[in-house]
Amino acid sequence: MRVYLACFDIEDDRKRRRLSRLLLEYGDRVQYSVFEITVKNEQQLEQLRNKCQQYADPTDSLRFYWLDATSRAKSYDVWGEPIARFPQGVVL
Questions:
Q1: Which pTM does this prediction carry?
Q2: Per-residue pLDDT averaged across 55-81, rounded?
Q3: CA separation, residue 81 to residues 4, 11, 23, 58, 85 (Å)
């Protein structure tokens, strides 16, 4: 399992809504255009990237940041509470 932070800036409302729905299939929304997603392997990430290209133009910004175990363990909110506890549960 790999956890990523997916962030985007897309002007087109329709494409933004569709991309949000797609990313919700892989994880949770943590801010309006930021999602914590979980994929099983690199192939699943590549499939997700290909699907995302349907909703983004080359002029849009869509990024995936890998959150490895070390970075997740060191992540916290402004009050000092731990965040990014992925995966919370895995359904096989």
A1: 0.82
A2: 88
A3: 20, 33, 25, 36, 11
